[in-house]
Amino acid sequence: MPAKTTAPLTAGDKAPAFDALDGSGKRHKLSDYKGKSVVLYFYPKDNTPGCTIEACEFRDAQPKFKRKDAVVLGVSPDPAKSHEKFSDKFELNFPLLVDEDKTICHAYGVWQKKKFMGREFMGVVRSTFIIDPKGKIAFAEYGVSAKGHAEAMLGEL
């Protein structure tokens, strides 16, 4: 059972560790990226309009992130097969981590109550964290807009 949602993270907090598989079955741990900046972005669902815009913008900006020695990782509760299809369809050039049990979502405080068309439900609040090379949160933003977000994160790096 996933842990309870934590209080929102802020700059200076220690980034919660994670260990997850991506859509192709490769394991990723936060500790694998020590010495690099990590842009960890959470999105609600593969193949939805906003999530596609955001993913494609991160894809297109990959050379700029690499020049800043930063790694981009996407996270959603979708299963590996969904991530794999989404990545293939849009030729994504960064990993999408599988978080079906929402462990990472809870650790980063992005699994929250949402409202849509008068209905309340639990879901992923689109959020992004920049983790510095020493494993601390350098930037945290909850409730981000998909369009223009990758470029904004480049500015935060």
Mean pLDDT: 90
Q: Topology as H/E string?
A: EEEHHEHEHEEEEH
Which CATH top level class fits?
Alpha Beta
CATH topology: Glutaredoxin
Question: What strand line-up does the widest sheet have?
Answer: 5-4-3-8-9
Binned, the helix content reads 25-40%
Derived from helix and strand composition plus strand pairing, the structural class reads alpha/beta
Tell me the strand percentage band. Answer: 25-35%
Q: For the report, how would you describe the main beta sheet?
A: 5 strands, mixed
Q: Tell me the overall shape.
A: globular
- Tell me the CATH superfamily: Glutaredoxin
Count of individual beta strands: 9
Given the structure, what is the number of helices? 5
Rg (C-alpha, Å): 14 Å
What is the count of distinct domains?
1
Unreliable parts: 1-5
**CATH architecture heading:** 3-Layer(aba) Sandwich
N-end to C-end Cα span: 34 Å
Structure overview:
This protein is an alpha/beta fold and 157 residues long. The protein has one domain: 3-Layer(aba) Sandwich (Glutaredoxin). The chain has helices at 49-60, 62-67, 80-90, 103-107, 149-156; strands at residues 19-21, 27-29, 37-42, 70-76, 96-98, 111-116, 119-124, 127-131, 137-142. The longest helix is centred in the middle third of the chain and has 12 residues, at 49-60.
What brief labels describe this structure?
globular, 157 residues, alpha/beta, five-stranded mixed beta sheet, 29% strand
Write the layout of secondary structure elements.
Elements: E1 19-21, E2 27-29, E3 37-42, H1 49-60, H2 62-67, E4 70-76, H3 80-90, E5 96-98, H4 103-107, E6 111-116, E7 119-124, E8 127-131, E9 137-142, H5 149-156
Parallel strand pairs: 3-4, 4-5
Antiparallel strand pairs: 1-2, 3-8, 6-7, 8-9
